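Structure (tokenized):
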């Protein structure tokens, strides 16, 4: 695949590109699984920009983009596994990482919806896992929406398996989504 390159997200333009890919991925994947008004009103193309900026500035996690020429086609955030309260993701969310201390996590992983089925996700996955391994993490976890069969198959193809646990994600209107934790060693 010619003209592909990885870019560490470090600029406002790159944070905006990642946020837009996330928003379009949410709008394609999650209708019927999260409240419609949440998708419409909260999941804007710039919703994640301040979070990506803060993560970069604090070193909390890293953003990684895959570009085809000058077009961003996929992105992910990765870093140490989250543990404890995660109000940025959802009020009331507390992540239990017991047994995975010292592990890495793919915190988010999206391919531009118009660019799926071209192998970009697999390239990004290979690179992100290699970076986590080089950083010394013994394994990697990722949370995936229980109903997202396509993503679950994708993670399984890349060596992840459901560890039997789930995470309830509270949303407005008393809606709760269920994420499954998939894990693999590095």
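Design, position by position:
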């Amino acid at each position: 695949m010619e003209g592909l390159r990885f870019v560490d997200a470090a600029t406002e333009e790159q944070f905006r590109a990642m946020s837009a890919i996330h928003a379009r991925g949410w709008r394609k994947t999650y209708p019927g699984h999260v409240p419609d008004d949440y998708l419409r009103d909260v999941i804007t193309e710039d919703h994640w920009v301040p979070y990506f900026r803060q993560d970069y500035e604090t070193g909390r996690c890293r953003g990684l983009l895959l570009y085809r020429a000058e077009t961003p086609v996929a992105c992910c955030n990765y870093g140490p596994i989250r543990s404890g309260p995660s109000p940025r993701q959802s009020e009331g969310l507390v992540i239990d990482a017991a047994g995975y201390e010292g592990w890495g996590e793919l915190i988010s992983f999206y391919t531009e919806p118009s660019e799926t089925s071209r192998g970009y996700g697999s390239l990004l996955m290979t690179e992100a896992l290699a970076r986590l391994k080089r950083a010394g993490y013994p394994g990697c976890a990722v949370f995936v929406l229980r109903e997202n069969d396509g993503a679950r198959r994708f993670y399984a193809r890349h060596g992840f398996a459901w560890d039997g646990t789930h995470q309830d994600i509270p949303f407005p209107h008393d809606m709760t989504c269920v994420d499954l934790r998939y894990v693999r060693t590095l």
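Reviewer-requested clarification: The two ends are 25 Å apart (CA to CA). The longest helix spans residues 12-29.
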